[in-house]
Amino acid sequence: MSFISFHSRDYAERERLDAAREFYAAVANVELALPRHETPEIAARIRLLPGISIASIECSSLIAQRELSSLADGNDDISLLLNPAGNGGWTSSQPSLGEVTCAPGEACLGFNEQPGRVAFHGQRTRFLSLGFSRQLLAPMLNQDMRPAVSKLFRYEPLERLARLALDLATPEPVALDGGGKATNQPTWDPAAVAEEMFDLAALCLGASPDAAQRARGRGLREARLRAIKGDMRAHAGCGDLTLPEVARRHGVSPGYLRALFRQEQTTFTDYLLELRLQLAWQRLTDPRHAHRTVSEIAFSAGFNNLSWFYRAFKHHFGMKPTEARGELLVSADTNGREVAVRM
């Protein structure tokens, strides 16, 4: 569960090509070729999970190729190559799959046991590569992948897999222990996330009946729930947020959404209440909101009834909202004078 990043701008212009070539050779055994007299602009973020490698790339025009000489590394991963977005484009080519160009939201296959290349066009082309251990993924599939269809179009498991991969291809936020010290513990379980990604990849590529049943009840369910929770966190402050509205946005029925939370031993209402209480707590204890009244903060956190807010807050945190604000905070005004601000 390591994270690797590279940016060509960290090097002097004359060193960028050599640095990029060394990076690609080290992490993927891939060679780079560039248009004559051009300097590469490459930003790469790589996350390694159990049995999975995630590489999010943004680059200028270049060709990344895996030659016959590179195959001696024994890497036989099955890769999904996705176009997440952007104005530029790229084309993948391999002997068994031919040449494939993917529009945003589409993906194609790649086999690391074969030579191949990806040609990038444009100044800011985005590329997402997900490498899955063949030993772990192949038993979940309904067919041999060698003659498989070369291109994958927009499809819910593919979209959720891409969204999850892009989220993972970012530096992990620093976790703090109870004393405020940084820890090395991730905020997510690498093994559980890897299992979810294998499930989604199997659904994308044609899962066997048993694997498809497990994946829909496990990986796809987890991906949907993660997206729904993220949506609710983003909109918790909206007082009119409703279960039917969230279900509609995510293309599921209200009953299915209720079942998702039921399997988490909670309800949509209770989870939303928790989000709103945490939002209110953050604002009540943040000096930047010291000028706002408790009522203003309650309404901005999505509560429509102040009596209910006070009861729920006291029950959850063991104190009144006014007590959470603490005592007088001494701060400096723009003229350097000390002023007292009621929290």
From TrEMBL:
Keywords: DNA-binding, Transcription, Transcription regulation. Pfam families: HTH_18. SMART domains: HTH_ARAC. InterPro entries: AraC_XylS_family_regulators, Homeodomain-like_sf, HTH_AraC, Tscrpt_reg_AraC-type_HTH. It comes from the Bacteria. One of its GO terms (molecular function) is DNA-binding transcription factor activity. Residues 222-327 form the HTH araC/xylS-type domain. This is Helix-turn-helix transcriptional regulator.
